Give the backbone structure.
Amino acid sequence: MRTNPRVGILAGFAIAVVAVLYAANSAYRNAENMIEASRQVAHTDEVGAELQGTLAAVTQSEASQRGFTITGDPSDLVQYREAESKSQYHLGRMRALTRDNPAQQKRVSALERVVQQKMAWQLHVVEVRQKRGGAAASAEVASGRGRALMAEVQQIVEEMQADEARSLDSRALQSEGIAARTLQTVTLFSCMVVLLLLYACNVILRDLRLRQQVQQQLEQTQQQLRDALETETERARVDPLTGLANRRAFMEVLESERCRSSRYRRPLTLAYLDLDNFKLVNDRYGHAEGDALLRTVAQLLSQSVRRSDTIARMGGDEFALLLPETGLAAAETALRNIRKKLAAAMLEKAFPVTLSVGSMTFLDFGMSLDSMLLAADRLMYEVKQHGKDGLSAKAFGGESKSAAAGKD
């Protein structure tokens, strides 16, 4: 029985039309999936940025609260309030970004609760400092409640980041599955319809190019996300005004140097520096001039120490200096030189600003980090109580104790 050529042509044409429509539909779905994958990457990037912003704001508020606990300087509370406002903003953005994810919404609620508890606890410490003094506030800080809440904040942030990463991986696998099925179908129809072979190959090559481009974009976006996370982590360790290390970074270096000095039995000097009469500059010339003064002091300190030394802004007008491998006499010489340079710089600007310094040289490392810092802080306050503009230096441990205080 002979087959009608017209029927064969129509059948071939019908098959060709079906193949083309199916291939076109598959390519369209694949393109949509690739676009959705790119959107998911951008979404993950945005959520990660808001998470890091929240963590940075909570860290800033904690540093401001600790600064106020130590100094009682009301200017520290300005940064605290700013950090509180920033945390609420980032939390609101996260809630909006994750509104289609019930699990993430629950975590956002949990994060809001813990952040509120953290802020309330810090406010409690501030009120204790205002009403009962620094010792009572330090005792509250030593209870560990603030550290526990901070750890809970970090845990929730890590869980949310992990959930976003899992969603992104799942979407990538789904995209690869759809692309693979599309390729198989197009190949099958290409074998059945010889006349569509060239067209099918073109579709496949175009699809592969699209996949490669999306894959490259995905890798680039992931790298940008990693870079952004590294940048945010680094920013969380730097004082934004002066560019010096902040309290968190300083305490990490102090712990490392303490362990090293304890192991090799080498001296370690920790100095606490406070600008006298700094408030007068703010009152007379404005806060912009005060900020410029703090940057000038930071630059002067950076130029006056070794590369192995560490300088940090602890909050307000207070700085800390860590001098590894430095004994009592060498530390006094270095600190007197810093005071002379600062005095010359302030004389040039006609500012009534001087420097009160408390310095502790350690050969016995049985103290906690906070106790070491508090010891230097107390020496600095002794100088301020005896007329300011001076240096008090003592040794703790193997060296015989000595002191040098007063104006140079």
Observations:
- Strands lie at 268-276, 310-315, 318-324, 354-362, 391-396.
